[in-house]
Amino acid sequence: MLTNVEHIGIAVRDIAASNDLFTKLLNVAPYKAEVVAAEGVMTSFFRVNQTKIELLEATSPDSPIAKFLEKKGEGIHHIAFEVDDIEGEIERLKNEGFTVLNEVPKRGADNKLVCFLHPKGTNGVLIELCQEIKE
Ligand SMILES: CC[C@H](C(=O)O)C(=O)SCCNC(=O)CCNC(=O)[C@H](O)C(C)(C)COP(=O)(O)OP(=O)(O)OC[C@H]1O[C@@H](n2cnc3c(N)ncnc32)[C@H](O)[C@@H]1OP(=O)(O)O
Ligand SMILES: [Co+2]
């Protein structure tokens, strides 16, 4: 089951400059910076009550963020929903006809297991599902 919007991912060219901007905007400093090498991203997380913003900078030219920036420029990159059973949701969504880009959940940022749905099947919005990793 999808429980809530866990974060909004925003693609940025210069995460240090965007950290300053979002700190002013949200009146709060980022609580975490984390590289996810497998995704080719550097992330920075802000929390405003229950809402999180994830800033994403590409760490390599073949990063999905680099391609996105080249094509669309800076802006909202994805919406992430929190789920309580990511494997179950993957099966359910596959059966509903959505294209799951990684059918095996992968390690994301901020201590989550994640998967993504192709935006072609979701009205042009990249959707991420994420489940807290219980240590
Ligand atoms: C996991 C760490 C962290 C976390 O929260 O834990 C993250 O969120 S990491 C975020 C970065 N990782 C990903 O985005 C992984 C999933 N994304 C992908 O697999 C690709 O980006 C994919 C398949 C969505 C697009 O890759 P492709 O190589 O096909 O790039 P194209 O430029 O050819 O795109 C094809 C088509 O899709 C449109 N597109 C691409 N990205 C997005 C997007 N973010 N939102 C909406 N639409 C997108 C692109 O415009 C192309 O459409 P077209 O009409 O053909 O121009
Ligand atoms: Co994300």
UniProtKB/TrEMBL annotation:
<dbReference type="GO" id="GO:0004493">
    <property type="term" value="F:methylmalonyl-CoA epimerase activity"/>
</dbReference>
<dbReference type="InterPro" id="IPR051785">
    <property type="entry name" value="MMCE/EMCE_epimerase"/>
</dbReference>
<comment type="similarity">
    <text>Belongs to the methylmalonyl-CoA epimerase family.</text>
</comment>
<dbReference type="GO" id="GO:0046491">
    <property type="term" value="P:L-methylmalonyl-CoA metabolic process"/>
</dbReference>
<dbReference type="Pfam" id="PF13669">
    <property type="entry name" value="Glyoxalase_4"/>
</dbReference>
<dbReference type="InterPro" id="IPR029068">
    <property type="entry name" value="Glyas_Bleomycin-R_OHBP_Dase"/>
</dbReference>
<keyword id="KW-0413">Isomerase</keyword>
<protein>
    <submittedName>
        <fullName>Methylmalonyl-CoA epimerase</fullName>
        <ecNumber>5.1.99.1</ecNumber>
    </submittedName>
</protein>
<dbReference type="GO" id="GO:0046872">
    <property type="term" value="F:metal ion binding"/>
</dbReference>
<feature type="domain" description="VOC">
    <location>
        <begin position="4"/>
        <end position="132"/>
    </location>
</feature>
<keyword id="KW-0479">Metal-binding</keyword>
<dbReference type="InterPro" id="IPR017515">
    <property type="entry name" value="MeMalonyl-CoA_epimerase"/>
</dbReference>
<dbReference type="InterPro" id="IPR037523">
    <property type="entry name" value="VOC_core"/>
</dbReference>
